[in-house]
Amino acid sequence: MAKRTGIEWTEVTWNPTTGCDRISSGCDNCYALTLAKRLKAMGAEKYQNDGDPRTSGPGFGLTTHPAALQQPYSWRTPRVVFVNSMSDLFHARVSLDFVRAVFEVIADTPQHTYQVLTKRSARLRKIADRLDWPDNLWMGVSVESGDVLYRVDDLRATPARVRFLSCEPLLGPLPGLDLTDIDWVIAGGESGPGHRPLDPAWVSVIRDRCVASGTPFFFKQWGGRTPKRGGRELDGRSWDEMPALSLAGS
Length: 250
Description:
Number of strands: 10
Number of domains: 1
Structural class: alpha/beta
Distance between the termini: 26 Å
Shape: globular
């Protein structure tokens, strides 16, 4: 069954694949890698495949789970679904056929809204025209620093109905961030024992660009040793804006 989640901008998580590899600075303190190690030790079936210790680790080898493709068909009420909170659907070792199978499930269950997030924007762009894009799929890329702003251009090149950015963990300013054809921006700081600090100025600039362009802005957290340590308020208020769900299902 789908797992209810504490991630503020979604409702449940669905993992038709698990496992991943570090590819950029945003991966350095990956919560999923740590969680996979714990789940492997607990005997969780999905997390028994080990990854390369240089880039991944125990329980975090890339694995596809065909049986998980049936899960959304059993959900009786509409849900907002984060796809692959424990993986990356556009990882090179996820076959095009399996990506297509995930998209087909999404298309078959239009009552739900699915959020797909990737750091592998080059592959996303490469195969985008070989996929059928359902209206209830929101496609996003992680943009943690100015070094990876190219991911925004890759996202813009896709025909997704809703395109979004996850600037989390935000590790530096995003100079020149262009929000043309971007429908939503999430920002937030890093949490955990090795968390890196978040400069309020970095967040304020992103928020101000969203306000100026009319782009919904969601501030998830300041971060700290625990996710809720620093709270969620920015300039005295919370920012919980999202695209209208009807955009993805109409």
